[in-house]
Every structure is written in structure tokens, then in C-alpha cells.
Amino acid sequence: MVPNGFQHINGLGNFPSDWQVKSADCVTTKITKGTTPPKSEIVQDSNIPFLRVNNLSFNGRLNSSSEMLFVSSDAHEGFLARSIAYPDDILMNIVGPPLGKISMLDKQYDSYNMNQAIVIYRTSPEHIDKYYFLKFLTSELAQQWLQSRSKKTSGQQNLTIQLCKELPVPVPPLPEQRKIAKILSTWDKAISTTERLIDNSKQQKKALMQQLLTGKKRLLDDSGRAFKEEWEEVKLGDACSKVTDGAHHSPQSVEVGYPMFSVKDMRPTGFAENTARHISERDFKALEKQNCKPEINDILIAKDGSILKYCFVVKEEIQGVILSSIALLRPKLNIISPHFIAQYFSQDSVKFFVGKALTSGSGVPRIILKDFKGIHIRIPSLCEQQKIATVLANADQEIELLEQQHADLKQEKKALMQQLLTGKRRVKVEQTDLKAN
């Protein structure tokens, strides 16, 4: 049932009666896609970026961390002239998965070009505000409409130019568009600020790990004096009472039962039980007797496939078992702190070494257990290990808190977008907003 004061648009939903709904080609002056030039036209001595899907992002800006190619001016102004794009043009990938990368071009370069996996939207300022259109394209509203009409062939998702032109766009009056875009931009700034804080915190933790886990920086003991004891080198197999892995066979799955965890179920601080498959109580008991059930203070490490991607300490009892893709280290608690070892294995330098030196297998890369046992680690006294682990755990908690704030902001923005872009929540347009028109 359509509420009073609203109109229904098939495939999109209900919108205020005083809004128009127009196809994208009615609110733009250009919609086209790029072309791939010969490799000889991709050059270094050019100031014309040639964009690919990896240069786009989901946050409305170009992906600054992705390598950018450059195209010759002859190609740019010649057979690529159709797809010349300028600052404020909006790009969207039309080949995936994933679809839904949207980026507005900035003023870093005078002009751009792109391949055929990207469509260009150039907005018509008398019909639509460019920032409003950008927000709309990134919305669930637009993305669901496009995704549901995409063609899937050979594992690829494709959108046609015609679909990109037919995309229905809710069009409130221009002052209201600008106000909506301004409100959502405020949320974007808060999200970007949180992202920067997360990046900074991760870099700070990385620097702290480099200092603390190598002994370059020494912490204070309980008496307030810096630790001075020499570090000693131990072999992991000697410092652990058990270095093993999980089940080497996979019992039949059941709908209700005990979780059987593999690497795919690992997360930074524990298992995601909702992704695990389940086994019967009988199979669980049998595998428990085979030491496939982790205990508190065990260290679990991804050893097959995503090597060392996840490494965490079991902090509470797990009523489940693990598969052989996960290594289980049971430390001798009078020698090493499990939390110190988990932090040690989370270092980029250690991941790189283990990945290069110890990985075997021509198919799925894996580390064999005897190599785990043979890893040599330099460790301080147990007390200093515990102090180091506590400092790094506090840094992790700060990062986790920021990541949760980031997730909350994104979820709140998503809900707000849904309300603002459908007119369920109307914005108040001030006199100053009307003058901008």
C-alpha cells in the first residue's frame, strides 16, 4: 500500500509525490564506457591516468593505494577520445564481481581515461547535484536495482551501458538534493576520520611490535626498573608440550551438533561459529579423544591456505574441534606466554619468513608441523613476555574499538541514506540553501 503523499516506482519503491523519478540519462550529459588501448600506448612519461577497476573504491573516491597506469596523449585524444573524463565525473565499474565501486574524479589531474570495465557519468547541473548523484549511486537502493539486472557469464557480472542509462533516479528539488548530499558528506567525513585513526593505530602498533618483540625497547618491571635480563633463544617444539593440528578426516555434517572449525572460520580473536559446519556428538567425542579439541591457553594458527593470516589464543572453553588446516600449539606456561607467542606470529616480518622459507605443497600452500617445531624464537623472561603481551593487547583493543566505531558509523549512514533517498525523512531547506539554487 502506497502511503499518502507518496508515489510508487516499480523496482525502486515509494517516493514523495513532489519528487520526480528520472532515468540516469535524463540527469546526465554523458554516459559511456572506456576502451583498452594497445600496450604500447601505456607509457610512463604521461600525466593522463588510465583507470582500471582496481583504481575505483566503494567509498566514492579513487583508490590511492592501487597502482595507476598512464596513457599517451595521442591515444587519449585519438581513439580513446570518447572516454575522456574530467574532474567531478563519476565512474562506476560495470564488470565484476564485485560490482558497486563508485568514484568521483578529483582535480589531481586535468583529465583521465579508462578501460571498458568502467562507465562514466557526467551530471547535468540544472537537473541534479553531482554529490547527490554520487551518494545515490553508492546507495543500496541503486546497487540492488543494478545488481538484480546484471548478467552473469563465466563467473563474471556485467552491466550494459543501456542499463546504466535506464537506472531510475529519485530527484527531489535541487536545494533538497544539496542538503541531503551535505548531510551524508558529514557522515562520510566521520567515517574517513575513523579510517585514518585505524590506519594510524595499526602503524603505531606495528612500530611498537618491532621495538618490543626484538628487545630494542625494554619495559619496566614491577619495581619500576627497566628489564635487563638477556633474551634467550628457544626452539618452539621445546617450549611447547604439544605442537599438532586438527582432524585429518572430515566426518559427515549434521544440521545440529558440535562445530568443526577450519581456517575459513578463523577471525582475528576467535572462531566464527556461524560459518562452521557441525558434526554429531559421537564424532565430536571421538575427535576430542584424538586431541582435536583446543584447550584454554592453546595457540591456534592458520597453517594451510591462508598461512598465518590468523593466530589467536584460546581464552575460554571451546565446545568444538578443529581440522588439520589449523595448527595447535600448547605452550609450557612456565617458559612462554601464549599471548607473547601469538603477537610474535602476527608480525609481518615473521609471516613473510614463514611464508617464504617454510611453506610447502604444490596446490594449497601449507606449513608442516615439524617445521613449526623447528622455529627458533628469542624470548625474554616470562615476566617481561607477559608485560609485552599486555601492552600489545591494549593496542589491539584500541584498534578493535575504532573498527567497531567504523562499522557502527557505516551502518548508521546506510540506514540514514535509505531514509533520505526515499523521502521517508525529509530535510529542512533553509533560505541559504535556496539561494544556492
Helices and strands in order:
Elements lengths: L5 E4 L3 E4 L3 E4 L4 E6 L15 E3 L17 E2 L2 H5 L12 E4 L1 E2 L5 E3 L8 E2 L3 E6 L6 H9 L1 H10 L1 E3 L2 E3 L2 H6 L1 E4 L2 H39 L19 E4 H4 E6 L12 E4 L4 E2 L2 E2 L5 E3 L1 H9 L9 E4 L8 E3 L7 E2 L3 E6 L6 H8 L2 H10 L1 E2 L5 E2 L1 H5 L2 E4 L2 H39 L10 H5 L2
Parallel strand pairs: 5-10, 17-23
Antiparallel strand pairs: 1-2, 3-14, 4-11, 5-6, 7-9, 7-11, 8-13, 12-13, 15-27, 16-24, 17-20, 18-19, 21-22, 21-24, 25-26
Describe the protein in words.
- It is a single chain.
- The protein is α+β, with helices and mostly antiparallel strands and 437 residues long.
- The protein has three domains: 18-171, Adenine-n6-DNA-methyltransferase TaqI, Chain A, domain 2, CATH 3.90.220; 173-221 and 386-437, Helix Hairpins (Orthogonal Bundle); 232-379, Alpha-Beta Complex (Adenine-n6-DNA-methyltransferase TaqI, Chain A, domain 2).
- Helices cover 34% and strands 22% of the residues.
- The protein has helices at residues 73-77, 130-138, 140-149, 161-166, 174-212, 236-239, 281-289, 338-345, 348-357, 369-373, 382-420, 431-435; strands at residues 6-9, 13-16, 20-23, 28-33, 49-51, 69-70, 90-93, 95-96, 102-104, 113-114, 118-123, 151-153, 156-158, 168-171, 232-235, 240-245, 258-261, 266-267, 270-271, 277-279, 299-302, 311-313, 321-322, 326-331, 359-360, 366-367, 376-379.
- It has a four-stranded antiparallel beta sheet.
- The model has no long low-confidence stretch (mean pLDDT 92).
